Amino acid sequence: MRKFNRWWILKPAVFLACLGPMVWISNQALYGRLSANPIKDITEFTGIWTLRFLMITLAITPLRRITGVSSLIRFRRMIGLFTFFQGFLHWMTYVWLDQFFMWGEILKDIIKRPFILSGMTAFTLMIPLAVTSTRKWIARLGGSRWQAVHRLIYFSGAAGVIHYYFFEKSDVRNPLAYALLLSFLLGFRAWHGMRQRALKLKPATRNM
Amino acid sequence: MLIQRASDISSSEITPENLYHNRREWIKTASAILGLTAVGTIIPACAPTVGAAGEPQAKGKYDTTEKPTPFEDITSYNNYYEFGTGKDDPARNSKNFKPKPWTVKVEGMCKKPATYNLDDLIKGFATEDRIYRMRCVEAWSMVIPWAGFPLKTLIERLEPLPSAKFVEFKTLVDPNQYPEQRRSFLKVLDWPYVEGLRMDEATHPLALIATGIYGKPLPNQNGAPLRLVLPWKYGFKGIKAIVNIRFTDKQPVNTWQQQASQEYGFYANVNPNVDHPRWSQARERRIGEFFKRPTLMFNGYADQVSELYAGMDLRRYY
Lengths: 208, 318
Description:
heterodimer; A: mainly alpha; 9 helices; B: alpha+beta; Sulfite Oxidase, Chain A, domain 2; 7-stranded mixed sheet; 5-stranded mixed sheet; 10 helices; 12 strands; 20% strand; globular
């Protein structure tokens, strides 16, 4: 008998869970359960979920290190691509629903407003990551170069949090919470990297 | 005037006939544009409509003939930070707010400074209906059938001295009734909420003290029992739940100006040519509509109010 492979269950389950936010907001919109300003609702919803997916993606590596469950890596690409997908939907609500493809207006917005510029930066930085997410691209670039490219997500995350901060009129509690979370997720990487280097310098302690 | 609470009116009675049509209209447009026409047509018909309320008709010379925004939208989509920063927070968190009894303290440069019971303060004022456009600084807008009386009537009753050049208003401070005022860490705004007007703006015939909408007492989330309505200015100038009126010779610092003076000024006149630093003010989304529409100078009230600002650099005095 073949051994039961739990990944056949877990991966589709996580995939379906990641579709959750989109299914929920579509349902709310179609049944008229959004507020009096549905386009604003959809824009804000897809925006905050982009940031949430981004944080989840960034949390995978620290979680692996802390819990020792290395196989979490199997979800990273999928969740990362969902981040890009949410970001794309958010970008589309702005370009399509908000500005209705008035590219001149959009360009003026980007140049004039740090709020729009930071959001556009966060999204644009995700594009190369989505493109190079395939096995083929990993092979083509080679592991370390591929990893270097994918460090762009740190900057995308920072731009995304700044974008969120600019969005709030005066209630900056949530943007600050995201800034704190991002600092933790990036700080953990820095701390872990330093510790690894330190351990390498002292081979005797490596097996501890 | 008797201020009644609306709590005994069920929502089916006060929902205007056009509401559900309107909502479905929006969904249809949106779905068609999103290429979801097939889905749009299977949306179930909502509750049957009750034609009791009828639609307010433009009668007075200041009324717009544009279609009023449904009552439900006006009372469920609000900025009233004392109740929370979400648009639905005011409706949800204002259910137990007590707009009666209500007192208003009048002070400063006038002949009638005192603490008034609201009923006494506005006794004898005839209530007028005014259908005004309302443009939020966040680039959305509504058409609201207000009921109230000109601010000028109230100011004349209080007999300001010739030295009074400005009038300042304050909203209630009551942490028991306003959840956001209970917060001490990372406060959203400094309380009380303050607004101000130049005396000639305050006595302009368009400036209204509203005590009702759609022929009903002002709901709590809309600023009960009395609020300011200045249709040519951004909505945040329309201070709600007023408890303090002060006549002064110094220009007041209004709350949003104090909060972010680069973004919000004292005048806050609707102006499509002067952008907010973070977004354009050239267009606006009328609630219930899919496409944005151009924003008009002074929100379409330029004929009535532009002389108040003759010769002023509106880029500087935003």
